[in-house]
Design brief:
The chain is built from 13 helices and no strands. The protein has 293 residues and is mainly alpha-helical. The chain folds into two domains: 1-131, no CATH class; 184-293. α2 (34-45) packs antiparallel against α3 (52-69), α8 packs antiparallel against α9 and α9 packs antiparallel against α10 (223-236). 66% of the residues lie in helices and 0% in strands. Keywords: Repeat.
């Protein structure tokens, strides 16, 4: 199956067989194209093998080199190719994968900045000048890397995430979207430091990020954003349940106004708030009486 431990190895074997058959009988057997190679990269991106990130990156390098030096446009990496490699590293973030994913992202940006303003092409673009698609690709790359830092357990993960968001906000090409903001807040929620000061800084960044997401007119917060900031408050606020209620209740009310209360939101709100706050905001408005105890 696609999620089995050896799925990527089996996919690699199929591609290797296609290559051998093409070399023997090129008139009868097709060489793997970008669709096949991207499927292999996706298999690596889902693999539990700790070498999956490296294997995906090596394949990407081969695709890029072959397309440029041999003129084989049918294996030229596209948006999905880069995204799959970043996912492969992000899925092993705690073993140096987050750092490597960021290095690849920075390489992608260098390629972007080296292109002329007239071209405006992003790595993996089709060259059709559709900059909105290419900008969306780069935003997604940032999202993947921020997600990687959130999984990394690195003591500086929040600082790295904050720096990535600032780069996006200062860019002429892209801006953070809801997924990016939600992922940054989630990184804060999983802060694993032991100091009260560290948790306070993590919560402060989470709240600041949530406020920025709320200010976005084109891509406002969704239920994941609301649920994730509630999770961050529940995990990081050290002052006790009363202080958590002060932060959680207005956020939940705003979520209700937007019609975005889903199971995830209710779960995070109930986990972080007091029983009294849950009754006041959820049970009583829904027609249920107060619960004692």
């Amino acid at each position: 199956t696609r999620d089995s431990a050896d799925a990527a190895d089996k996919a690699q074997q199929i591609v290797d067989r296609m290559m051998r058959l093409h070399e023997m009988e090129p008139a009868y057997f097709a060489e793997p194209c970008i669709i096949v190679l991207n499927a292999l990269l996706k298999a690596y991106s889902r693999s539990s093998n700790p070498r999956a990130g490296l294997q995906a990156e090596e394949l990407l390098k081969w695709m890029d080199q072959t397309s440029r030096e041999a003129g084989k446009e049918h294996v030229k990496p596209d948006y999905s190719s880069f995204a799959a490699v970043l996912h492969a590293w992000a899925n092993h973030a705690s073993n140096g994968g987050a750092q490597r994913a960021q290095e690849i992202l920075e390489h992608v940006e260098e390629l972007l900045l080296s292109s002329s303003p007239e071209e405006g092409e992003y790595p993996g673009s089709s060259g059709d000048g559709n900059n909105s698609v290419h900008r969306g690709a780069l935003v997604n790359y940032y999202y993947i890397v921020i997600k990687a830092w959130g999984r990394s357990k690195d003591p500086n993960a929040i600082q790295r995430t904050e720096a990535l968001l600032e780069r996006m906000e200062q860019s002429r090409h892209i801006q953070p979207d809801t997924r990016t903001y939600s992922s940054a807040i989630n990184c804060c929620a999983y802060y694993n430091g032991s100091t009260s000061k560290g948790r306070h800084l993590a919560l402060s960044f989470a709240m600041k990020t949530f406020e920025k997401a709320c200010q976005s007119e084109n891509d406002p917060p969704n239920y994941v954003t609301y649920g994730t900031i509630m999770k961050a408050i529940g995990r990081l606020e050290d002052g006790g349940v009363e202080e958590r209620d002060v932060l959680l209740k207005p956020i939940f009310e705003k979520c209700k106004e937007q019609g975005l209360v889903e199971r995830f939101v209710l779960t995070q709100f109930r986990t972080g708030c007091s029983l009294e706050a849950f009754q006041e905001c959820v049970l009583i408005p829904a027609g249920f009486g107060p619960i004692n105890g």
